[in-house]
Every structure is written in C-alpha cells, then in structure tokens.
C-alpha cells in the first residue's frame, strides 16, 4: 500500500521516539560516554522544541481562541498564554526521567509520580480556591517545576554519578 510522504514521516518519527529509551538503555550499558553525549544532544533539542512550541502558542493564543470560539474571549486568551509554558516546563524533566529509566530506577520513578500527583492535587486545589481559574493554571505549571526538582533530588540522593555524567 502506498503511503503519503507526510504519513510515512510521522511513522518514522514515532518509531524513532519509541526506540529512544531502549537504544539509550543499551548505550548506557555499553558506552556511558556515548550515552551521555546522546542524552545531552537529545535534551538540548527537546528543550529547544518545547521552548519554540511554548513561544508560538503564547504568541498565537489570541488567534487560536478566536478560531476555536469564533469570538474574542480575553480571559481564555490569558489562560492559554499562561498554559503555553507547559510544553517547555514538561521538557525540562526529560533528562531526569530518561536517567531514571535507563538506570533501571523505575520504582523510584513510580514513587516520584505519586509525590508529583499529591503535590498537584494539593497545589491546584489550594490555588484554585484562592485565585480561581488562574490558580489552576499556576498549579498545573508549578507541578511541572516540582516534578523536575523531585526527580533531580531522587537522582542526586540515589545516583549522583548520573547527574555528574549528564552535566559534565
């Protein structure tokens, strides 16, 4: 069956993404210098991509809201502009999660997920009660920042050498 170039490219990109963790795990076992080089390169590209998506979403928020709602909803534009930073903030934790997965620290990642979930419920509930919908936006954004620091703290306490390898 003949596939369009766009569809083929999407499948190729998805396959590359899905294969990253197994390939990174194998590289981690075989050649840690090459692994850290790959991770730094990938991390930079992911952060750059997340930043570009965030900036473009922020700048196009009025247009997005106008197209989807067929009206000008300034409050919705504000919420979208605040939440536009979510892709970038989610990207800052990619290296930490990758390190936890390749070092077979999945149990610690599971614990970190529970801590992040507990924080999100607490912060979002509190901030929403205090500030309304803006508080919910800030609760969601702050959860990504806290997730980064939780994973960073876990790595620092359990496998400091991974952080040294990443940032050296």
Provide a short characterization of the protein structure.
Helices cover 89% and strands 0% of the residues.
Q: How large, in whole angstroms, is the Cα Rg?
A: 19 Å
**Domain module count:** 1
Low-confidence stretches: none
Task: Estimate the mean pLDDT confidence.
Answer: 88
Number of strands: 0
For the largest beta-sheet, the strand count, sense and barrel status come to: none
End-to-end distance: 48 Å
Beta-strand content: under 5%
Give me the strand/helix succession: HHHHHHHH
What is the subunit organization of this protein? single chain
Question: What coarse outline follows from CA principal-axis ratios?
Answer: globular
Total DSSP helices: 8
Helix content: over 70%
Class from helix and strand fractions: mainly alpha
Structure explained in plain terms:
With 168 residues, the protein is an all-alpha fold. It has one domain. It contains 8 helices and no strands. The chain has helices spanning 5-30, 32-69, 74-83, 86-91, 94-102, 106-131, 133-158, 160-167. Helix 7 (133-158) crosses helix 8 (160-167).
Provide tags for this entry:
168 residues; mainly alpha; 0% strand
Write the topology of this structure.
Layout: H1 5-30, H2 32-69, H3 74-83, H4 86-91, H5 94-102, H6 106-131, H7 133-158, H8 160-167
Helix pairs in contact: 1-2, 2-3, 5-7, 6-7, 7-8
């Amino acid at each position: 069956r003949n596939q369009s170039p766009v569809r083929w490219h999407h499948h190729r990109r998805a396959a590359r993404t899905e294969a990253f963790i197994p390939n990174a795990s194998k590289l981690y076992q075989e050649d840690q210098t090459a692994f850290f080089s790959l991770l730094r390169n990938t991390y930079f590209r992911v952060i750059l991509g997340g930043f570009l998506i965030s900036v473009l979403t922020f700048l196009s928020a009025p247009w997005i809201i106008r197209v989807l709602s067929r009206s000008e909803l300034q409050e919705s534009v504000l919420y979208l502009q605040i939440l536009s930073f979510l892709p970038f903030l989610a990207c800052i934790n990619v290296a930490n999660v990758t390190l936890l997965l390749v070092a077979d620290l999945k149990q610690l990642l599971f614990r970190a997920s529970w801590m992040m979930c507990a924080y999100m419920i607490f912060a979002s509930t509190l901030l929403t009660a205090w500030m309304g919908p803006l508080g919910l936006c800030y609760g969601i954004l702050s959860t990504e920042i806290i997730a980064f620091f939780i994973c960073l703290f876990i790595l620092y306490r359990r496998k400091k050498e991974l952080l040294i390898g990443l940032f050296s």
